[in-house]
Amino acid sequence: MPAAPLQIAAERVAVPVLAAISVSHLLNDLIQSLLPAIYPILKDNYRLDFGQIGLLTLTFQMSASLLQPLVGTFTDRRPQPFSLVVGMGFTLVGLLTLSQAHSYPLLLLGAALVGMGSSVFHPESSRVARMASGGRHGLAQSVFQVGGNAGTALGPLLAAFIVVPFGQGSIAWFSAVALLAMLILFTVGRWYRDKLVELKAKPKAPERTSSFSRGRIVLSITILMLLVFSKNFYMAGLTSYYTFYLIAKFQVSVQDAQVYLFIFLGAVAAGTLLGGPVGDRIGRRYVIWISILGVLPFTLLLPYASLFWTAVLSIIIGVVLASAFSAILVYATELVPGRVGMIAGLFFGLSFGMGGLGAAALGQLADMTSIETVYKVCSFLPAIGLLAYFLPKIEKARV
């Protein structure tokens, strides 16, 4: 029989551990963001079309998304404190493969290896963040998430000033980043291992169960998954093709386009940091509702804006839309108590999967029409946020 989920007693926030796991998330996602950041280079070097660019993203995202729920379910039953180091090892190998690849299949292999590293990292690191939260789950998840978003924002900036001038081989220089992350994660793993021993020695609190029916839980999880689909499909259009959009529509340089991408991703990081604490205070259902549906007017305006207003609107979209994920993830873990790894794996996996499918589909659409058409089509996706109306008010339903 699997062990019952560990119950974490209320305590102070373990700030050093939370900071370490957030910094690790920053380093992990910085490496991952190098792939879309170097798409313009790969497109020219290998004469790729937008469909092939989308397939690269799909390969990375699918290798991450398919494994994450399985990893999360397994570690709910058998926590693996040092699996974080192993996951970062996969990322390191993928990074080196991308730096030395001289064919499209090798690029796909490198993308897949980086995705596998992500599939191990996210479920277990989400559990560590929750264990270190001291009961402030929204805050902890936001701090953890903002590390990842900050890394995603830094990737294009570093690519613009390192990879663009020095070429594909310079990606290998970032192996130092992966090694630093492995060192930090080894230290986190030791804390995680000791924490598990401590928790096993304590009397277990009664396992909290949901007061909602199975059907209501399934419906709510389905709605949350549709909201994640809306968010990540739209975000895939911005992160994968924003540089191409700016170059095609406004004739900016590759380096300038990377700087604009950095600004947008920085806004995403800021929005992620806000989502969790605001959800702790006013309720996560309201944050979900506002962040998905509230961004709709701005996405509808974006395809018709000038370069200046494109930058401004992208900042607003990044802040508002990014605030949703932390709230969605914590809401889901409260809807299904005691299954942090499974829920984190499911939603991180869905997030990566939808991003990958979105990138591939939008790449094909861009080849058939234009990159500007992609942004016009995607502008309606946040309307799916209307479904948030049907989510239960979980804060009043706790037992």
Automatic annotation (TrEMBL):
Entry keyword DNA-binding: no
Major facilitator superfamily (MFS) profile domain residues: 17-397
Record's keyword terms, sorted: Membrane, Transmembrane, Transmembrane helix
Keyword Membrane recorded: yes
InterPro entries: MFS, MFS_dom, MFS_trans_sf
Any Pfam family the entry gives: MFS_1
TM region positions: 50-70, 82-98, 104-122, 143-164, 170-192, 217-237, 257-274, 286-305, 311-331, 343-362, 374-391
Gene3D superfamilies xrefs: MFS general substrate transporter like domains (1.20.1250.20)
Entry protein name: MFS transporter
Organism: Microvirga arabica
